[in-house]
Structure formats: C-alpha cells, structure tokens
C-alpha cells in the first residue's frame, strides 16, 4: 500500500487514435498508460507497423521503458522510462512519413538527459502528415519562443524521399532544457512576407518552377514580398520515388509562422496532379490558414499547448485559430495526464477588421515541470 | 580650567557660517576647493577600489524570480522545538494567550490563530522523535528553538539545525529559557554570551536569540512574550525551493468516513479518511498524488475548498483587532467549533454547507445504483418487467427498460449528440466542447445484430465524432465551405497582411500625425513666435461643439486618451530610462510583468472555476479525501504527531535509481558501509534503502567503495523515489529511540536520476605461466573455457613485477589456457593478472518508514531492515577470519651466501688493483725475504741513546729558532703593509689634488668659451 507505485493505476484508453499523444504525454508525466481495443474489430487487428516503429523509436530515446503488447496487438501497456537522448538512428516505417515520428520527437526532445541527435530515415514528404519542411519552418521557430534555442537546435533535410518508396533522411538536433519559459503570444501581427519551398525529386526540375508560378499567381494579390525557393534533389539525395510538392510559410511581424503545404499523390496511388493545380491549391490552403489565423498554425497547436502546460507555474497565453479535433483530444489528454485545464475564450474579430475567422485565446497555468532527466554537475 | 567653546549666534562669523550652511558644501564644491585631495593618487589603487565596488554590487544580485507568493497567504507555520521540559508548551500557551486572550490546556495538533490584520499563525509543537523533527523541518516557516540556558545546547538541537540545513533553511529564532536558575549575574551574562555565539555559528552571524528571564505563576513574563509576539508578527520569510515548488498541507483535522457497517464486519479494512488543512506552497491539482510522511503514497480521491475557519478580518482602516476577530482554531485540541474526542470529531457546521455536499453526491450514487441494478439477471427483470423511473432533475436519463445493456451509457450518447448539435447551432461553448461530457469512446453494443445467435455483425460506425481507431494525424483539414476564388472570401483576410488596413494605434499615418502633435508645439526662441500644432486645435474644435455625446462615446474617447498617454509615457521612458537598463533590469521587469499577469489573469473568475484552471490556491482551507488509508492510521492516531500531506509532482511517484553526492557527517562517529541499509529523508519522504558508495575516477568510471571516505564527498546510488535533481537529503541509521550520540549519519544532494546504474568494482583474474619461450608465454588458470578466452583476446595483462603483456590466442591443450606475449621474458614464479571492471547492481529496496502507523506511545520505535553487523551482533555470530589474514610470528632463516668465484681468465684480464688477490689476506713471508732483526751491543746502545738525546735537543732548538723567525717575519709584514697603505693614501691625495686642478681648469675653459660666444657677436 505504501509503495510509490501502488497508488498509480495508470490511465486506460480505447482505440489507436491519438496514439502518439498518449505515449508522449505518458513519457513526459511518468504515468503508465494502457491502450485497449486497438483496431479490435478490424479485419487486420492490432498495431500497425508504423505504430510499432514509433514505439521502437520511443524505446530508443528512453531508458527503462516497459512495453507490453498482447498476442494480437490489440492491447498495449506502456510504462515510461526516463528520457535519455543522445545519438539515435531510426528507420521510420514508410507507411507514415517522418513528420509523424518527428512530431512526437519534437515534444520530447527538450527534456532528455543529453541533447538529442536523431537521424530519421524514411518518407520525408507525403500527403497525410505534416512534412519535415513544414515542421522545420513552423515548429522550430515556435519552440524558440519557449526558450528552446541555441546552436544545436536544427532540423536538416539531408535526403528527400517521397511516398511510397521513401529513402529520405532527416537529422534533428535539439539541446536540453531544465525548464520552459512561459509565453504570451496574443498578437500575431500582420503578415510581412511569404516564403516557401517547391521541391521535386525524380521528375523534371521544371515542375518546381511551374508550381512557383501558379502559387505566386494567387498570393501576389495580397503581398509583394513572396519568395519561393525551388529545391530539386538529384542522385543519391532524391530517394526512391518520384514526386513534387510545395510548402508555403507566412511570417508575421511578431515572428509567428503560418504554413500550408501540398504534396503530389504518391506514385501508383490515385490520380496524378498537375503542378499548376498543386501550386494554386496550396496557395489557397495558405489563405485558409491565414483565415484561421492565430499565432500558431493548425498543425502545431498541440505542440504549443504542451509547452505551455510544461512551463513554470506562470500564466501562459496563446492565440490560436479554431481548434482542430486533434488539439481538442490533446487538451483532454493534458487534463488526464497533468490535471491542467485551459481557459478557452473565443475572440471574435471586430466588424470593421478583415482578419479572417474567430480566434481562440488559450490561457493556462504551467505545471512547473522540470526536466528530471538532466544530470546535475 | 578650559573655557567651553562659545558658538557665535550673531556677528560676521555667525553670518558666514549661516551662509555656508545655506549653500551646503557639495562634493563638487569640495573638489573645487581642494582638487589635490581628489586627484588620482594611484591608478592601481583606484582600479582596485572600483573593482571592489563592482564586486559588492554584483554580489547583491540574485537571479530574479517570479513572485508567486499568494495574495492571501496561509498561516505561518511556527514550529516550537526543544528538548523535553524546556518549556515548549508553556511558550505556545503564552503566545496564544498574548494574541487571543484565550487559555489553552493541552497543546495537541496545530493551533491556528489570527495574530494581526494580515497575518495568521499556526503553532506546532515538535517532540523529540527524530521522525517528527524531520517532518516538521520540511513544513516550517519559522522555528522557535528553545534552549535550556541552565543546561546549554543538547544534541537534538544540533540535529534539528542540521535537518533544517538539508531541507532548506527556514527562519530560526532561538529562545533561551530557565534563565532564572542563575543566581550569579556575571555567570548569567557569560552563559548568555557563550550560547549566543554558539548559536550564531550554527545559524548565521547576528541571528536573533530571545531571552525569557523567569516564570510568574507558571507563565513567562507578559512583556517578554509580547515582545516575542511582535517579532513574530513582523517577520519576513524567504521562499524555500522545495516548499515553493510543492503543495503541502499541515493537517489540522481528520475524519474517518468509512462506512460503519463495513467497519463492523471488517475492522481492519482500509479506511476512507478526509483530512483538512490550509494549503501551502503552491497550487494543488485535484486528483493528484500525495505522500504522507510516515504512512505512504496515496491518490487523492477528491479535493474541495471550505470556508476559512480562521479567516482574516475584513479590510478596514483600523489598527488593532477587536475581540471577535481574534480567532483561534485548533480542532485537534478541541477548540474552534470542533470538539475533539478520542475516536471521533464532532463538527458544528452551518446547515447550508451540509446541503451543498449532499447535492453534489447524489447523481454519482444514482449512476452507481443503475450499475448495480444491471447485475440483476435478465429473468428477474423480465419477471418484474417494470419501468422504473428515477427522480432526477434531468428527466428520463436514468429510465430503465428491461434490456441487458447498461442504459446510462446510451443516454449519455444521446446526451452527447444533443450537446453536439446544440453546440453546432448555437454559439459554440468551446469549454464544454473540449472538457464537458466527453463521450466519444462509446462502444457500439447497441447496434450489433446477432446472426444465428453465434456471430455478431459489426458495422462500422459513421456517425461518431471521433472514431477511436481513426487515423492518428495532426493535420487540420480545411473548411470546404470556403471558396477561395470568391472575392469576398479574399477580402475577408485582407487586413491580415501588412498591405491591409492597420489599427488606428498602429497606422503609420496616425502615428506620424501624433508625432506632429507631440513635437508640433514649440516656441521659436529667437523670434519669440509661438507655433502650435494644427491638429490639437482641430481636435478641440471638433470636441467642443459635440458636448452632448453619449456616455459610451465619452468612454471611448477617454480610453483613447489614456492609451495615447500610455504610449507617450512609454516613448518618454524609452528615451530617458532604457539607456542604462542592464540585462538584469530587463529580466527583473519581465518577471514583474509575469507576476502581475499571474495575479490578474484569474482574479475575476469565481472560485469554483478558478480552481479548475489553476488548481487550489495556497491559502485556501481545503478538505482532501483519501480512500484506502491503512486502518492503523486511524486506530493509532495521535494528534501530537504532525500529519503532512506533501503533493508530488509528475513522475515523482515513480521509483528509479538515484545517483547522489553524499558526505558522512563529521560528527557521526562511524564510517558507513556499502550495502548497509540506511534511512534517508528525501523530498517529503522518509524511507530505508540500501546505498552503494562509489567514487568517480578520472576517466568518469564510478568505482565501488566499501566504505564512505572520512572527510570527503563520495557518490551514492540508491533505488528510491524519483526526486528532482538538486534536492538535499539526510541519512540516519536508525530512527528508533533516543540516543546520546549524534544521529545524522550523512547529508548530500541528488545529482542524477536514471533507470539503470553504472557502478563497477575491480576484479582481478589471476593466472600462472606454465611454459615460457622468450617473451611469449603460455598461461593457465585464468579462464576455464576457450570461449572465455576468446572474449578477452587482445586484453592487456600484467605481472606483479610490472611486466606488461597482451592475451593473444586461446590454446586447445588446456581448456582456458592461452598464449600471451610480454615486453620481457617472464619467470615461472611470476603471477599474471588481468584487471577488469565488473558492474554492480544496486539492491532494489525501498521501504518507507511507516512510523505514523505504529501504536500510540511507540511511534518512535520504528525499526526496519537491520545491518549485517547488527544481525551478527543480535544473533551472536562471530566472523571466522581467513587464516591467511591472521598475523603470525615471522621466522626468518639465516641466509648463507656462496663465495664469489671469478674465473682465472677473467682474473688475469682484470687490472692489478681489482684482482681478487688483493682482497685476500697476505700469506706468510718467505724466509729469504724476511729481514733479520738487529740486536745492539751495550756500547752501541749507549751511543744510540746519546745520539737520540742530542737530536732531541737539536730539534728543540731548531723549533724555537723557527718560532722566533716566524714572529719577526710577521712583524715585518705588518710594517710593510702599513707603509704600503700610507703610500696609497699619499698617492690618492696627490691624484685628488691633480684632478681638482684639472677640473678647475676645464671649468674655466668652458666658462670662457661660453662667455666667448656672445662676445664674438
């Protein structure tokens, strides 16, 4: 009765959705988690390869984790160890892109024992997950606002690998922090410039230029300061599959980044897209993102909220666009793991302003989390 | 007698003085009048002074922290410590009487009083049990340390001071009692001084030590107690790291809520207990984990806040408290609307409060009822076949039909879908959407159909909002209703870009205009013309005619004005202040802003909601419910022992390996042995564990030590609760009973947390050569199989004499033998060893000290695992020493050496003096070489004697003459020297004279030449 473990029974969840969130929060809070009924009614029950790959990655960056999976793979029990960090190499399963794995790693990286240097191999760009380019241009500057910066904070795309073949390589390095700074991101400011990367591999280099032209056609309406780089990788750096895509980032005066992206459909999966269409649609996605607004773009909402939760015991505020379903579930999970609730206020734009849709102001008091892995010298 | 100095009050001198005083001598003035005194005398000295001044200035800086102290702080915890019979209870009684005019009999448990308009105090007496001392040191804000002056310091006092030092130093105030036992005044003064200085060395130089001189009718003197009370009520406290980062409650009331029926059937069942107290430290989250020192870790079932039983007076402008406001709250002592009995607490609560609680409880019990009812068999339900309706405010939510599935789930689903629709239609209440009634995880039992009674058809659900097994993706797909071709859509985001319209306060045009306003008014000094800004006039003109504007418009204008003022002030500040703002100042300002924000953010939210966002605030009076406390906690409850609820941070409830830096206390008499169990006080916890001591080698290796070093830090690895790095701990070997000696064995700090350890110990493998070929050697006895050798191929080995070598290859002839090469030829008598490092595992013992569960009166007798030495002592086992290790008398045999034999050839070659012949004793002289001895005749004898006598005389004469000659020669030399000296002197004189003449001549020449030049012109 008196042992420290006896009092915790752990948290129990159903289904494989929001799998990453739960494992990440479990690792950070030290609470064990049990996930049941993972695709138990599916024709192909149990964990998929990409989830297994994520678990393996978690095992690599932690020390002393206990993972138990039943015979069919429908029940997972995870008792987190301490985050260890160091040099990690991981071959990500090509069912999901590296972004899937990297999103989890971004949340864990600042709380390791030694600074992380992760080399991830697999699919760098695919249509489902945020690509590495997007994370590089939005998640990293966001984390810098929370005091996670320094020369060792970098995400480098060494090789580009499109879905479904993969063959890309990304190096992510991140320093460790003992505490996270509270932030007040309530005013995004106006967008001052738009940047982007149009990439193409194993297709004609002209594709990238065609994308750029069409994307500029839409965006020139708003802003003159637009520059879209073309990135054509060749030879060993171009991965295994052909493809192209575009990532657009809008930077505001206050240093907030909103982004949108689009990738060509993977080879042999659906209708091919024209680069002109892709460029135009991607630009529209960026406009949609601008319409949603906020200081954090829609795919990084959960990262911002997590870092706010893990801050010191101070009030943090951040203005977001409408909450995505993923973020809503993340908020619930934060309440389960850290007992933190956010004050959620809807900010309606005033009538004479043309600033897009409703915004949401999220306020919370940090839990005073400190990195328990870092060694004291 | 000297005359006193008369100051002039009138006259010129007085005038002069008055004038001087009026002007005031400034530094500038002094500098002008006496510039030399202010000149730089020495650059080095000036540099040094500057350096020192800067050093002092910088030393005063601390890292600025956000001020998180609560607005309405909890009562200050005052712990009264001291050896028995020193007057602890008397002092508390006196202080309480001083503040509240009430007399308290037995002091048990914490006593809370209102001491002033803004301060409340909680007194807690600390008995002499080391467990209590450790627990109370962790929660104390102020320690009143009672010292018996007639006896002096006792070991417990020093122990308590050391405990405080480890767990963060609270304010400590010494109080000397029993001063009336001194008859001799001089002795009293001397003792006071001695004790004061000893106290200062322990706490800090100049620490406050209070003297309570004597007793009047069993109480301390009123005036002295009053003074002490004043000191306490103005005292300031520093924030301690552990206390400000963890919530904690010093429990002042305990209730057993266990069902009496269950108690009757099973008196030893786990109890549900509610504990009350002021929350201190930091925010407490609901459903968190707490540690109760002396009991263990528990999950809090529920927390709620209660009206303050000992509240501060309402803010009113007056000096003192009136009688009504001098509240006293000590439920454990039976005061303050609460009666304390042996096994129950009777509380007098307002009626509305009780009702509130009941309301809260009802729905959950209904839910439980509905669940219980489903356990009834289907047949039974069919038999009854009734529709049972529950009287619920929410209507038909809990209505029952005779079906197998629990209906409340369905109703929840229905409720959820309704809520979702409502949320879609009306203005979305996001809070409810996110946190309220989350029911996405419904299973689809209701929609399953049975086929042939055996298989179930599963239909994928489409209507669910979030499918439990959907794709896990963070991307937020765009709203399809937005058509980004349309012009109005594009227009709706126009202002998000720098090219769009700006807010009035940010617009470049308005800003420019404002600048004009600000700097527009000026007076041309040369012409005397006054220029006025155009806009100001216009504004006035605009405002003037519209005097009947609405109130809200006025408000807007006012706000605008305020805003403008603020901006102007900002700009002014930026221009004049920020010039010399350092990084430190900026940081401080940032912290201040954050503190302000923290305070204001939730200020106007009602408490119920605020608690959900922030957690329970320190200063609140809260009630925590804990289920499954061991029954001994209630049965053996003793209010004299403090119950502390220490909140645990995330993952502080887990166990792992801790690496710490440890130092044996210099007052502890024995060194500590690896693997001997030790009781640690770390964080909130007290627990027994088995440490391994180690030290770090130069290459970062942690080498196991058998014992702690005497006067040095060493590492210690334990299996224990995860506690943040930097937390201090102390170790004792036993907490049972009182001992005369100092009990704190070691102190230290946590350095690292991990789930594995890397402590190694040295292992030497020994082998013996059995065949030697030059530098190669076959060695056996080190390993047993070929496989073992293969693992060590290439490893370096060494002989005892220091010859180094390497393992080359395993041999098949002897299992475990190998070939090795060395830097020199070995001898058969050499011993070869291989030095290796063997990892040691830390024993996983974590045994919390459950002293609070022991029966009343035996709470200080907790005994855990015994050390090996204790076990041996208790069981009477003596160690049988290794016979090889025993000392024996040493018998050394006489050593004999053979003579040195040099071959003949070599002897021949040797030089003559080194030939061994020389060293041999000489043999007998042959006869022919021996000289015959001479024997004289009598006449010859006489002649020889005469010759001898003559030669003696001659020798004597010669010697005498020589002596005379010698003295004469000496005199001669002296004389000669004198003459020489005189000659030199003479010559010097002459030379001097010559030079003088020459010099004069030269001067003359020079002068004449100088004179000669103008003469030439």
From TrEMBL, chain A:
One GO CC annotation: nucleolus
CDD domains: RNA_Cyclase_Class_I
Family matches, as SUPFAM superfamilies: EPT/RTPC-like
GO molecular function term, any single one: RNA endonuclease activity
Record domain RNA 3'-terminal phosphate cyclase insert: where: 186-290
A single BP term in Gene Ontology: endonucleolytic cleavage of tricistronic rRNA transcript (SSU-rRNA, 5.8S rRNA, LSU-rRNA)
Keyword entries, A-Z: Nucleus, Ribosome biogenesis
Transmembrane regions: none
Protein location: Nucleus, Nucleolus
Domain of life: Eukaryota
Domain RNA 3'-terminal phosphate cyclase: 13-344
A Pfam family this chain is assigned to: RTC
PROSITE patterns, per the entry: RTC
InterPro entries: RNA3'-term_phos_cycl_insert, RNA3'_phos_cyclase_dom, RNA3'_phos_cyclase_dom_sf, RNA3'_term_phos_cyc, RNA3'_term_phos_cyc_type_2, RNA3'_term_phos_cycl-like_CS, RNA3'P_cycl/enolpyr_Trfase_a/b, RPTC_insert
Keyword Ubl conjugation: no
Function (record text): As part of the small subunit (SSU) processome, it plays a role in 40S-ribosomal-subunit biogenesis in the early pre-rRNA processing steps at sites A0, A1 and A2 that are required for proper maturation of the 18S RNA. Activates BMS1 by promoting GDP/GTP exchange. Does not have cyclase activity.
Family designation: Belongs to the RNA 3'-terminal cyclase family. Type 2 subfamily.
Quaternary structure, from the entry: Part of the small subunit (SSU) processome, composed of more than 70 proteins and the RNA chaperone small nucleolar RNA (snoRNA) U3. Interacts with BMS1.
Protein name: RNA 3'-terminal phosphate cyclase-like protein
Lineage: Eukaryota, Metazoa, Chordata, Craniata, Vertebrata
TrEMBL record, chain B:
Region of interest: Disordered: 1-36, 906-932, 971-990, 998-1017
Listed GO CC annotations: 90S preribosome; nucleoplasm; small-subunit processome
Keywords: ATP-binding, GTP-binding, Hydrolase, Nucleotide-binding, Nucleus, Phosphoprotein, Ribosome biogenesis
GO MF terms held by the record: ATP binding; GTP binding; GTPase activity; U3 snoRNA binding
Biased composition (Low complexity): 911-923
Superkingdom of source: Eukaryota
Presence of keyword Phosphoprotein: yes
UniProt GO BP: endonucleolytic cleavage of tricistronic rRNA transcript (SSU-rRNA, 5.8S rRNA, LSU-rRNA); maturation of SSU-rRNA from tricistronic rRNA transcript (SSU-rRNA, 5.8S rRNA, LSU-rRNA)
Compositional bias of kind Basic and acidic residues: 24-33, 971-984
Entry's family note: Belongs to the TRAFAC class translation factor GTPase superfamily. Bms1-like GTPase family. BMS1 subfamily.
UniProt-recorded name of the protein: BMS1 ribosome biogenesis factor
């Amino acid at each position: 009765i008196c042992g420290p473990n006896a009092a915790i029974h752990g948290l129990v969840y159903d289904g494989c959705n929001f799998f990453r969130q739960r494992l990440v929060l479990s690792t950070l809070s030290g609470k064990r988690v049990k996930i049941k009924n993972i695709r138990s009614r599916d024709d192909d029950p149990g964990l998929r390869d990409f989830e297994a790959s994520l678990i393996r990655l978690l095992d690599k960056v932690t020390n002393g984790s206990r993972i138990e999976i039943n015979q069919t793979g429908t029940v997972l029990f995870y008792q987190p160890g301490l985050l260890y960090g160091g040099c990690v190499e991981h071959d990500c399963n090509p069912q999901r892109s590296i972004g899937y794995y990297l999103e989890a790693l971004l949340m864990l990286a600042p709380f390791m024992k030694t600074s992380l240097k992760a080399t991830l191999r697999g699919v760098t760009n695919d249509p489902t997950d945020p690509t590495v380019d997007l994370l590089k241009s939005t998640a990293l500057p966001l984390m810098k606002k929370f005091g996670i910066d320094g020369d060792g904070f970098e995400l480098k795309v060494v090789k580009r690998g499109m879905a479904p073949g993969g063959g890309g390589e990304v190096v992510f390095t991140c320093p460790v922090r003992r505490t996270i700074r509270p932030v007040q991101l309530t005013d995004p400011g106006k967008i001052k410039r738009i940047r982007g990367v149009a990439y193409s591999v194993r297709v004609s280099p002209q594709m990238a230029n065609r994308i750029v032209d069409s994307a500029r056609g839409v965006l020139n309406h708003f802003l003159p300061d637009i520059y879209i780089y073309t990135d054509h990788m060749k030879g060993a750096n171009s991965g295994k599959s052909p493809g192209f895509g575009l990532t657009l980032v809008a930077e505001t005066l206050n240093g907030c980044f909103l982004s949108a992206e689009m990738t060509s459909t993977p080879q042999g999966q659906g209708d091919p897209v024209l680069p002109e269409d892709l460029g135009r649609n991607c630009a529209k996605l960026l406009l949609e993102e601008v319409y949603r607004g906020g200081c954090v773009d829609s795919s990084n909402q959960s990262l911002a909220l997590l870092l706010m939760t893990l801050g010191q015991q101070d009030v943090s505020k951040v203005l977001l666009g409408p909450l995505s379903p993923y973020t809503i579930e993340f908020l619930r999970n934060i309440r389960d793991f850290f007992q933190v609730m956010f004050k959620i206020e809807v900010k309606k734009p005033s009538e004479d302003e043309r600033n897009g849709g409703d915004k949401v102001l999220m306020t919370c008091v940090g839990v005073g989390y400190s990195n328990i892995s870092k060694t004291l010298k | 007698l000297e005359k006193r100095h008369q100051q002039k009050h009138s006259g010129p001198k007085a005038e002069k003085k008055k004038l001087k005083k009026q002007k005031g001598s400034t530094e500038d003035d002094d500098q002008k009048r006496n510039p030399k005194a202010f000149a730089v005398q020495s650059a080095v000295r000036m540099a040094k002074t500057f350096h020192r001044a800067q050093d002092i200035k910088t030393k005063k800086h601390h890292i600025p922290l956000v001020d998180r102290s609560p607005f309405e702080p909890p009562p200050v915890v005052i712990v009264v410590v001291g050896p028995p019979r020193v007057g602890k209870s008397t002092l508390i009684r006196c202080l309480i009487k001083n503040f509240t005019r009430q007399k308290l009999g037995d002091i048990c448990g914490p006593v809370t009083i209102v001491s002033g308009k803004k301060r409340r105090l909680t007194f807690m007496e600390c008995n002499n049990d080391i467990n209590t001392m450790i627990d109370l040191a962790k929660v104390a804000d102020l320690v009143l340390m009672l010292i018996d002056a007639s006896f002096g310091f006792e070991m417990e006092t020093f122990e308590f001071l050391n405990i405080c030092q480890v767990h963060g130093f609270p304010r400590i105030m010494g109080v000397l009692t029993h001063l009336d036992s001194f008859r001799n005044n001089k002795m009293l003064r001397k003792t006071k001084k001695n004790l004061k200085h000893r106290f200062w060395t322990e706490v800090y130089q100049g620490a406050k030590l209070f003297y309570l001189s004597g007793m009047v009718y069993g109480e301390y003197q009123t005036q002295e107690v009053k003074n002490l009370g004043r000191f306490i009520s103005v005292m300031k406290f520093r924030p301690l790291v552990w206390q400000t980062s963890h919530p904690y409650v010093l429990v002042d009331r305990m209730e057993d809520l266990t069902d009496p029926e269950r108690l009757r059937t099973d008196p030893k069942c786990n109890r549900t207990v509610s504990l009350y107290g002021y929350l201190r430290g930091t925010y407490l989250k609901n459903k968190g984990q707490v540690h109760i020192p002396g009991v263990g870790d528990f999950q809090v079932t529920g927390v709620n806040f209660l009206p303050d039983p000992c509240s501060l007076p309402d803010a009113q402008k007056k000096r003192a408290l009136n009688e009504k406001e001098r509240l006293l709250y000590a439920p454990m002592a039976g005061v303050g609307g609460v009666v304390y009995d042996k096994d129950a607490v009777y509380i007098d609560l307002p009626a509305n409060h009780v009702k509130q609680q009941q309301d809260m409880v009802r729905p959950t019990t209904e839910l439980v009822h509905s669940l219980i009812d489903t356990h009834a068999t289907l047949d039974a339900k069919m038999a009854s076949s009734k529709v049972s309706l529950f009287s619920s405010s929410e209507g038909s939510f809990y209505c029952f039909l005779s079906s197998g599935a629990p209906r409340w789930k369905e109703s929840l689903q229905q409720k959820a879908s309704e809520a979702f629709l409502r949320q879609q239609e009306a203005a979305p209440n996001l809070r409810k959407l996110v946190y309220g009634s989350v029911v996405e995880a419904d299973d689809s039992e209701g929609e399953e159909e049975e086929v042939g009674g055996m298989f179930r058809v599963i239909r994928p659900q489409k209507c669910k909002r979030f499918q439990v097994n959907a794709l896990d993706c963070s991307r937020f797909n765009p709203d399809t209703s937005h058509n980004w071709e349309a012009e109005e859509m594009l227009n709706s985001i126009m202002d998000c870009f720098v090219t769009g319209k700006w807010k009035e306060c940010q617009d470049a045009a308005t800003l420019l205009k404002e600048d004009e306003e600000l700097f527009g008014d000026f007076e041309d000094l040369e012409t005397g013309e006054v220029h006025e800004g155009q806009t100001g006039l216009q504004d006035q003109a605009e405002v003037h005619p519209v005097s009947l504007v609405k109130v809200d418009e006025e408000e807007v204008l006012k706000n605008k004005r305020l805003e403008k003022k603020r901006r102007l002030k900002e700009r002014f500040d930026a221009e004049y202040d920020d010039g010399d703002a350092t990084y430190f100042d900026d940081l401080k300002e940032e912290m201040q802003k954050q503190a302000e924000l923290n305070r204001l953010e939730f200020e106007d939210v009602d408490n119920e909601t605020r608690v959900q966002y922030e957690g329970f605030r320190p200063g609140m009076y809260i009630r925590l419910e804990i289920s499954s406390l061991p029954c001994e906690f209630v049965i053996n409850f003793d209010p004299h022992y403090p119950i502390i609820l220490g909140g645990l941070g995330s993952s502080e409830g887990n166990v792992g390996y801790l690496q710490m830096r440890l130092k044996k206390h210099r007052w502890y008499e024995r060194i500590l042995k690896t693997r001997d169990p030790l009781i640690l006080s770390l964080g909130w916890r007290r627990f027994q564990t088995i440490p391994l001591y180690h030290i770090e080698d130069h290459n970062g290796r942690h080498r196991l030590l058998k014992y702690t070093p005497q006067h040095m830090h060493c590492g210690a690895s334990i299996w224990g609760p995860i506690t943040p790095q930097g937390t201090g701990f102390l170790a004792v070997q036993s907490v049972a009973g009182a001992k005369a000696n100092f009990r704190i064995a070691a102190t230290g700090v946590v350095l690292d947390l991990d789930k594995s350890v890397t402590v190694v110990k040295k292992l030497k493998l020994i082998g013996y050569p059995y065949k030697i070929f030059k530098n190669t050697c076959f060695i056996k006895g080190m390993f047993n199989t070929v496989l073992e050798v293969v693992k060590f191929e290439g490893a370096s080995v060494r002989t005892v004499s220091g010859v180094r070598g390497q393992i080359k290859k395993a041999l098949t002839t002897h299992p475990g033998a190998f070939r090795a090469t060395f830097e020199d030829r070995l001898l058969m008598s050499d011993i070869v060893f291989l030095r290796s490092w063997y990892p040691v595992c830390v024993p996983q013992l974590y045994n919390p000290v459950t002293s609070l569960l022991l029966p009343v009166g035996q709470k200080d007798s907790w005994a855990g695992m015994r050390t090996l030495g204790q076990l041996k002592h208790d069981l009477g086992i003596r160690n049988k020493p290794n016979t090889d290790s025993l000392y024996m008398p040493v018998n050394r045999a006489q050593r004999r050496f053979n003579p040195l034999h040099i071959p003949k050839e070599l002897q021949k070659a040797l030089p003559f003096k080194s030939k061994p012949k020389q060293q041999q004793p000489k043999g007998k002289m042959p006869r022919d070489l021996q000289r015959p001895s001479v024997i004289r005749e009598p006449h010859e004898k006489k002649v020889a004697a005469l010759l001898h006598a003559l030669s003696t005389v001659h020798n004597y004469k010669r010697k005498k003459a020589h002596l005379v000659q010698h003295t004469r020669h000496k005199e001669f030399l002296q004389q000669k020297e004198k003459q020489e000296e005189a000659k030199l002197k003479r010559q010097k004189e002459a030379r001097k004279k010559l030079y003088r003449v020459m010099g004069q001549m030269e001067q003359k020449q020079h002068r004449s030449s100088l004179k000669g030049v103008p003469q030439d012109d």
